[in-house]
Design goal:
With 289 residues, the protein is an alpha+beta fold. It folds into 3 domains: 7-52, Uridine Diphospho-n-acetylenolpyruvylglucosamine Reductase, domain 2 (2-Layer Sandwich); 60-173, Uridine Diphospho-n-acetylenolpyruvylglucosamine Reductase, domain 3; 180-288, CO dehydrogenase flavoprotein, C-terminal domain (Enolase-like, domain 1), CATH 3.30.390. The protein has helices spanning 14-24, 37-42, 79-84, 86-91, 94-100, 105-110, 113-118, 126-132, 228-234, 241-254, 265-288; strands at 7-9, 28-31, 50-53, 63-66, 70-74, 136-141, 144-149, 154-156, 159-160, 167-173, 180-186, 197-206, 209-218, 225-226, 237-238. A 5-stranded antiparallel beta sheet has the order 4-5-10-6-7.
Length: 289
């Protein structure tokens, strides 16, 4: 299918990009990696009058550590750049591994972390592990900028709090005492599949006590969600297989999955329980290795 006609814009700076979005209004769509936007245009689900490409904004492709702030990733960082980052592999291997399982190599070369976040779909792989690592985001527009915890960005399936004219500039993973983290998902094929269910976990273990924990679920509700009751059941407790199984049951009980072609709500709820227990054990073992 032919794509609809549109005007193509290539701003040279973030300021210029924001000004263009203000000027063009609702007729403009932002183009980052294009793996989602171009597909929607080809199948007739999207017909913008203007495409504002961010391809020239190289400042948004960096991954660096800023003392006192943490690891900062530009929104245009590709999935493969995350996977091959020595910095991320050393500090938070769970994030590169999540990026590696997302899609084919061609898609991972083009797709961006910003696009994976801004689409707001509950099956996205990077938001769960980023939320488990307590990430925050910076949104920029011609009116200024604002930062927020990533978990506050999502309001529902494909619904976020991003305002007209705003761009996601970067994501920050703060320095923290986390001892282990992981992301596990179940898909309908070996690689590159959307998550039927995904579970991200980060833990802080001292001795045999689980001092802190964050559990984040994908494809288990209309949006990415924290399993807070399961977290509360674990926090401050002595680690045991029984405790982890209880947390899995708690996470399954508070999940809100739906029936779809990829799995029934009951099937997804069962997966939440199984994957939560496994992810907790893997993250805890990573801290002891």
């Amino acid at each position: 299918m032919y794509m609809p006609d549109f005007e193509y814009h290539t701003p040279e700076t973030l300021t210029e990009a924001c000004a263009l979005l203000d000027e063009l209004g609702e007729q403009a769509t932002v183009l980052a990696g294009g793996t989602d936007v171009l597909h929607k245009m080809k199948v007739g689900k999207l017909a913008p009058g203007h495409l504002v490409s961010l391809k020239n904004l190289d400042d948004l492709r960096t991954i660096s550590h800023e003392p006192g702030r943490g690891i900062v990733m530009g929104a245009l960082t590709s999935h493969n750049a995350i996977y091959t980052s020595r910095l991320l592999q050393k500090r938070y291997l769970s994030l590169p591994m999540a990026a590696h399982t997302m899609a084919s190599n061609q898609i991972c070369n083009m797709g961006t972390v910003g696009g994976n976040i801004v689409n707001g779909v509950p099956s996205a792989d990077l938001p769960p592990i980023l939320i488990a690592l307590n990430a925050s985001i910076r949104l920029v527009s011609s009116k200024g900028e604002r930062t927020m915890p990533l978990e506050d960005f999502f309001h529902g399936s494909a619904e976020t709090v991003i305002a007209p004219g705003e761009l996601l500039a970067d994501i920050t993973i703060p320095d923290q005492p986390t001892t282990g983290s992981t992301y596990m998902k179940f898909g309908l094929r070996r690689s590159g599949a959307l998550a039927v269910v995904g579970v991200a976990v980060s833990v802080t273990v001292k001795g045999d006590i689980l001092e802190d924990v964050r559990i984040v679920l994908a494809s288990a509700a209309p949006t990415v969600m924290r399993a807070r009751k399961a977290e509360d059941r674990l926090r401050g407790k002595k680690i045991s297989d029984e405790l982890l199984a209880e947390a899995g049951e708690e996470a399954a009980a508070e999940s809100r999955p739906r029936d779809s072609i990829r799995g029934s709500a009951e099937y997804r709820r069962n997966l939440v329980g199984v994957l939560t227990k496994r992810a907790l054990r893997k993250a805890i073992d990573e801290g002891h290795s």
